[in-house]
Amino acid sequence: MLAPASYAFRNDDRSIVTLDSIGWQKINSPAYRFAGDERPDSGHVIFQYTLSGQGYLELEQQTHALPPGTGFLVKVPSKHCYYYARADEPWEILWLNLRGDEANRIWDLVTEQEGPVIRRGADSSLIVHYWKLFRMIAEEKVTDKYRLSALAYDWMLTLIQSSRELGKEIGAQPGSVLDKAKTFIREHYASPLTLDAISEQCGINKHYLCRLFQKSEHTSPLAYLRDRRVEAALALLRTTDLPIREIGARCGFDTPSYFGKVFREYMSMTPKEYREKKLEFPYDAVYYG
Known about the structure:
The chain is of the alpha+beta class. 46% of the residues lie in helices and 20% in strands. The chain has two domains: 5-172, Regulatory protein AraC (Jelly Rolls); 173-289, Arc Repressor Mutant, subunit A (Orthogonal Bundle), CATH 1.10.10.60. It is elongated.
């Protein structure tokens, strides 16, 4: 019968993905804390998943709670810290550490789409494959580096596949996340929007939001926002007598100089020149995208 345990493997073969360590652990000490730029061991990637209880991950000046069903992907060394800070319930976790260029590449692919914190059910294919690997080590005593490499690679393929399937499910929903983001941008382009604000409104990671825009719109969320701001400015220039400075402010541009710079990039002329060239540009509105 399986029980919490941990296993480490050491070899110098850099030609393959190698399993550095794997484990199942229940943590109840607040001393449990690992900083990615202070560890004596380095050169590997980490997957850690919460079965029960809760821990925390600090990364990019943000603190992420790690309740059951969440996991994180980080590299060592890097500026991150994960820790246990609650005394009411142990933090029960699974972890998997890998070495090799391919492991680093796959970590980049998944974090680009989902961010460093991922969500998978305990019955998901990713966690089922994890238990398969853990069981083969714990019960069947598999230690051959090539067989472990094949098993680890199989787990990484499941990680990629589940990440891409998650993206398809979100993108295919009626009133999808992408539509929600575009509507929010169109309705709030005059506000000082940031990528973080847009992604938070949609309930997804900003890296995944960028990937959705690139795949569907062939642009970025901030470029889409800029298009809407320029469209609004063009309409106001043509249909109102508002001062150019005020038009820029109403359309979400921080300063008149920035408004002028962006406008020239789009129209190859200043806002004033556009307003004066009614015969050459006889349109009340111009749309981009």
